[in-house]
Amino acid sequence: MNATSTLAAALPDAVHQSQQAFREVLNALSRPGQVCNVGPALPGVALGGAMARLLLSLTDDETPVWWQQDDAPSQYWLRFHTGAPVTTLPELASFAVVRASQDGLNLNAFAAGTATSPEFSTTVLIELPALHGGAPTQGRGPGIKHSCQLDLAGLPVGFWAQWQANHAAFPQGVDIIFTCGDRCLGLPRTTRVQRLERV
Fold first, then answer.
1. Less crowded by CB within 10 Å, the N or C end of the chain?
2. What pTM, to 2 d.p., does this model score?
3. Each residue of 92-124: pLDDT tens digit?
């Protein structure tokens, strides 16, 4: 993947492509386990297509972004196009950008909202090597007819234990958007996940 250039462009058709990305992420969060196509990589941007397009579509100058990896070029690129400020404090972030290959993810560090205002929580975007091929889990909850199987690959160590605690804190807690390449998959805090044994 090419390094991000400070001159890298944003969405070629900002209005329509931003609306498309917003629709896809709403669809992903309202139908957990369903993979949605957000769009291909943007030239010169060192983020997957879905991650880059979602950040461009969801952030603005009032949504601080926390980056697990110190990625100054990508941070500058996003701030140039949307005005999104960088925060080094995860509890102040509206959005968090995480690379799954990195350990040390702590969901408790992010804003969980309050019982009366649960919407004031962090949305965590996690870029995975693949949305399939990992350890099988089963999801249940709103937006899922009976159950769905999730087999996300490359999750941070201890992720599902953290997720169970996050789900138990409902209505507080974080929501997660997994991305890989041009696709995304939503995991809202309402989804209960159970690990499955491999056959």
1. C
2. 0.92
3. 999 999 987 667 789 999 999 999 999 999 999
